[in-house]
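stage 2 :: seqdesign
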């Protein structure tokens, strides 16, 4: 199997590199490497877009983005990833590491994540801020849904913080398999389902969704219907600060009250409760 590799040079590097990564993720691109001057993106040759000129950020006059494309044979992407992966510390609570890193004392939990092609290691601002919100929640004895689970890291953090049960849903086969593996690595249990929001079969006290703006806007009514009681919580991320009012409006229209949000490099994570 051959891959197309897109080598992007980005100026200024932030926030353009993060925005570009997010917009490429909505296509068929599978893996990314971030560099000091840009981004490298990988896509299977038969799934590559005919062109990428339509991508919004590439048309933005505030950013100078150029790229070159090469064709390569399939690599051991995990080995490539291992070269660049570094553990992530979130406050004094969560230490996210790969299986080949040593545990670190002084944290409430060491979380072992091997993401493979899946999104969610804690490196990205959205994941990092979602984990901060989860740590602040009282997860004990609660039922939790990790929607668009990626690696399963968000649900795993909730599980380690004494959630009663955690279910995981993602549309991608690789993410489903990866989440199952990461659950085993962290001695956590949970049902892992392939599908979208229409696959939600029961109600929860805490729903986590780190996806993207368009999917969230479409699925917020479904999330609202699957919270059990008034006061139950929905945590959302995967969008920019400029989109926050759209998200707030959609939640308000579905009986969800805004509580607070965090923002880092224009990425937002926010909390809503059922009212």
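stage 2 :: out
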């Amino acid at each position: 199997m051959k891959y197309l590799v897109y080598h992007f040079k980005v100026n200024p590097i932030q926030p353009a590199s993060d925005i570009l990564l997010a917009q490429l993720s909505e296509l068929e691109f599978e893996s990314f490497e971030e560099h000091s001057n840009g981004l490298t993106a990988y896509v299977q040759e038969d799934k590559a877009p005919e062109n990428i000129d339509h991508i919004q950020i590439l048309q933005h006059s505030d950013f100078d983005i150029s790229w070159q494309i090469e064709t390569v044979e399939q690599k051991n992407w995990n080995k490539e990833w291992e070269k660049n992966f570094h553990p992530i510390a979130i406050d004094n609570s969560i230490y996210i590491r790969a299986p080949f890193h040593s545990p670190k004392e002084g944290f409430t939990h060491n979380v072992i994540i091997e993401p493979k092609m899946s999104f969610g290691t804690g490196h990205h601002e959205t994941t990092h801020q979602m984990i901060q919100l989860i740590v602040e929640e009282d997860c004990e004895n609660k039922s939790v849904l990790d929607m668009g689970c990626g690696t399963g890291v968000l649900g795993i953090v909730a599980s380690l913080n004494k959630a009663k049960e955690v279910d995981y849903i993602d549309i991608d086969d690789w993410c489903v398999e990866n989440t199952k593996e990461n659950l085993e690595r962290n001695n956590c249990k949970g049902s892992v389902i392939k599908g979208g929001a229409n696959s939600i079969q029961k109600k929860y006290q805490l729903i986590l969704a780190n996806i993207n703006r368009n999917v969230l806007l479409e699925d917020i009514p479904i999330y609202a219907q699957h919270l059990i009681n008034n006061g139950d919580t929905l945590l959302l991320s995967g969008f920019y600060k400029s989109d926050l009012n759209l998200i707030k409006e959609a939640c308000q229209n579905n009986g969800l009250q805004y509580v607070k949000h965090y923002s880092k490099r224009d990425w937002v994570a926010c909390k809503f409760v059922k009212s």
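stage 3 :: structure notes
- Residues 120-274 form a domain with the Rossmann fold fold (CATH 3.40.50.150).
- Residues 10 and 65 are 5 Å apart (CA to CA).
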